[in-house]
């Protein structure tokens, strides 16, 4: 595929076109989605915006925040009482992985849902880089100034700035500088892969989507099994034994951080989006999806470490995302599509990147003092407020203006006469 190709390029044959139109016609009857026809015979939602999924972004980012407040490491821990520290860790230790997995699946789903039929690969890549990199670079700089430069080698800092540090299977590299930044290295691969994946996936017959979704889901769930089986389990990753997390650095990196492995999450989101758009998804609703997700989160605390990271929650995640999108397409009420939740969702990307900088810097600023449970709750609330205000500033002053002004070339070539 060249940069001049459209992302949805490759017109179907006449027979396939007729078949797709027939399947598309069923969509309105089977799902009630408000849709409009496109040139390739697919139906697209009348409005590509999904406010409930925007609103759900913030709870996912908040889970990552809570996970980091619960890590009992000296550079983050605030509470003095050991029992209280471990109790909070027991509650939140899988929250971060749940939030990140949700973001990865959501990314593939939303990009497929809103794909522009006449978009070019170059234009798509430009929009995604303009969207993510300014905030990434700013929070990288904040982290380096605030604390990371004191212990981060120059080479590691540069790898991090270039978003390629996640490809290095060393804990002090892929978790360097601003710890959540590793996931943006995965997102970079997702965006580079999306045009090709979309070109392949859109050729899948609607009736066969269930097999692809089942296969990718099975691969995600089975990843820990093959990781434990094939990779050495020593030495344990830093701090893992103290937390009851049995896995070597290589095992942890391969099953959780390795970009091609996490590409499965992104691809699953793409496939589920196609199933919903084609009326081939079993929608159980947001309530049942949410209950299933809550139950899987509890269950994740009772399985081996690598299984807890995403294998237990991946199925409820796809059901919740599909249910929220279906509700939006039907213009149904949800708790996540009000103005407050949409605003929180819009600033969630900045919040995700800036919160760890706030947590680490506040801990550094407070010195070595430890605090009672009520005092710790008060400090965490202050940290949350600072992170939220900082994310609002990043969104309003950096992310939104740059996205609006630079997503398209400022001087497009004049049309040929």
TrEMBL record:
Residues 52-395 form the Acyltransferase domain. Residues 1-21 are annotated as: Disordered. The keyword Transferase applies. The keyword Cell membrane does not apply. Its EC number is 2.3.-.-. Pfam families: Acyl_transf_3. GO terms for molecular function: acyltransferase activity. The chain crosses the membrane at residues 56-75, 95-115, 136-168, 180-197, 209-231, 251-273, 280-300, 312-329, 341-362, 377-398. Keywords: Acyltransferase, Membrane, Transferase, Transmembrane, Transmembrane helix. InterPro entries: Acyl_transf_3_dom, Acyltransferase_3. This is Acyltransferase family protein. It comes from Streptomyces noboritoensis.
């Amino acid at each position: 595929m060249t940069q001049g190709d459209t992302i949805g390029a490759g017109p179907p044959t006449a027979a396939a076109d007729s078949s797709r139109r027939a399947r598309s016609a069923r969509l309105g009857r089977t799902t009630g989605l408000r849709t409009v026809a496109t040139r390739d015979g697919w139906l697209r939602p009348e409005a590509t915006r999904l406010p409930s999924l925007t609103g759900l972004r913030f709870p996912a980012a908040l889970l990552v925040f809570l996970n980091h407040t619960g890590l009992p490491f000296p550079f983050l821990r605030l509470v003095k009482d050991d029992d209280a520290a471990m109790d909070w860790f027991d509650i939140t230790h899988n929250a971060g992985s749940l939030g990140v997995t949700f973001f990865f699946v959501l990314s593939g789903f939303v990009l497929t849902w809103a794909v522009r039929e006449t978009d070019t690969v170059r234009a798509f890549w430009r929009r995604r880089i303009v969207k993510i990199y300014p905030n990434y670079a700013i929070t990288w700089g904040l982290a380096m100034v605030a604390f990371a430069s004191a212990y981060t080698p120059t080479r590691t800092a540069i790898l991090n700035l270039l978003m390629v540090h996640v490809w290095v299977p060393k804990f002090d590299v892929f978790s360097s500088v601003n710890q959540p930044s590793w996931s943006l290295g995965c997102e970079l691969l997702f965006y580079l892969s999306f045009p090709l994946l979309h070109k392949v996936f859109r050729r899948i017959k609607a009736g066969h989507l269930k097999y692809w979704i089942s296969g990718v889901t099975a691969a995600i769930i089975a990843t820990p099994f093959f990781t434990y089986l094939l990779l050495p389990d020593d030495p344990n990753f830093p701090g893992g034994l103290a937390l009851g997390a049995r896995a070597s650095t290589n095992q942890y990196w391969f099953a959780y951080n390795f970009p091609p492995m996490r590409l499965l999450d992104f691809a699953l989101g793409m496939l589920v989006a196609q199933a919903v758009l084609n009326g081939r998804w079993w929608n159980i609703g947001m309530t049942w999806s949410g209950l299933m997700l809550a139950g899987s989160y509890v269950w994740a605390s009772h399985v081996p470490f690598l299984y807890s990271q995403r294998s237990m929650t991946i199925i409820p995640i796809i059901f919740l995302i599909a249910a929220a999108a279906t509700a939006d397409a039907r213009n149904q009420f949800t708790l996540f599509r009000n103005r407050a939740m949409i605003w929180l969702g819009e600033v969630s990307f900045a919040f995700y990147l800036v919160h760890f900088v706030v947590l680490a810097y506040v801990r550094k600023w407070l010195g070595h003092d430890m605090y009672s449970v009520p005092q710790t709750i008060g400090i965490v609330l202050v940290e949350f407020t600072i992170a939220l205000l900082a994310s609002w500033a990043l969104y309003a002053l950096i992310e939104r203006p740059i996205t609006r002004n630079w997503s398209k070339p400022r001087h497009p070539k004049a049309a040929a006469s």
